[in-house]
Each structure stands twice: as C-alpha cells, then as structure tokens.
Amino acid sequence: MRHHRKSTVLAAAALTALSLGLTACGGSGTGAKDAGSAGAVARATTGTGDGATSADSGSGSTGGGKGTNTSTASTGSTTGGKASAEAPACAHDDVRVTAAKADEVPTEHVVLTATNVSGRACALLKHPLLAFGPIQTAKDVPAVEKSRPAVPVVVKNGESAYADVRISLGGVHEDNKVVREFTVNLFAPEGPAEGSVVVKAPAGGLAVNEAVAKTGYWTYELRNGADEF
Hints:
This protein is about 35% helix and about 25% strand. With about 230 residues, it is α+β, with helices and mostly antiparallel strands. The protein is globular. The termini are far apart.
C-alpha cells in the first residue's frame, strides 16, 4: 500500500510538472511572437519618424538623409527634363547672333545663327524679329508658318539654333537697299522681349527688299522643305 501511494504521489508530481512545463512553453512562445510584432512596429515607427523628421525639418538620422537625397536625386532627374523643356526665354544679351549668306547666286537668303552665351539653357521662342533699318520705321518681316518646329527650341550654353531669312528675290531691283547691319529682337512669353541685337551684315552688305523679306522660325537645324521659301 505504501509503495502504491508513493507511485501515485510521484505520478501526480510528474503530471503537475508536465502541466507547468507546457504552460511555461506556451507563455514563452506567445511572448516571443508578441515581442517580434512589437519590434516590427517599433522599427516601422522609427523609420517613419526619421523620414517624417527629415521631410519636415530637413534634419534627421543619416539613414533619413540618404533616403531624402535619393528621393531628391530622382525627382531632380524627372524635373530636370521639365526644366529643359520649360527653360526661360533667351534675352537679347543671352545670345550672340551672326548672319551668313546662303550658298546661292544671287544671294536671296541669309542664315541667322543664335549661339547661347548665357551660361545656362534658354529657349528661343518663335522666330527672330527683324528690322532692316531703324526699328521705329522698319517694315515687319513676316514669319513662314511651315517652318515652325514641332518642339520648343531650347539651346544649352554654347549651342546654337538657326533661322533662314529671305532678303530679296535676287538680282537688281529698284526696291533693294544695301544693308550693312540690321537689328534682331527676340520673343518673351508675353510678346516681343526688351532690347535687341545689332547684327553685322556679311562682307559687302546685303541687298534687301523689305517688301518680299520673310523669316523662318528658330530651329535646331535647317530642314529641307520646311525652311525653303
């Protein structure tokens, strides 16, 4: 009987120990799971906090700074393209304009070259505004619409754009006048820009007939057909 009682007591003790062990294991597993979730939330909160601090105040952790820099670089790359397309209009002192006779006899056209010397990109809007004589009295030189380019002409510093200009119908005509220099004005977004550029005529001057003069739009390069008039 005493042996049986001892076995019963040992069995009960073993059962109690097993129960306690299972309870402890269950608590430990749940605790690990909960701790992991809390750690994940903490990491997410910390990351958000760093990002928010960096975005709101411009300061934060090194990681936040790098993230901000990467984002800025990406945005800069995207807006860089937009900035090129939306570059400010070239002012008269942003470009150097020269004129050369076209390769033809007699001379009926000149090619204007506008080179950007501003140190930044700028847009040559529409076409050159030409005055073959005093600006106040010179006849307006109309533009040829078919020469309008499909995209805005944005020239980087040191690069050039071109415009073809008809100055006469060739030969000797009573309305021709010899021009040694002439004036070129540019467009601003709201209309003709302030100021103008005085352009030296090629050697020997130009025989200009204002009645038939026409100008093409600024283009990246002269195109057969579109710039022939």
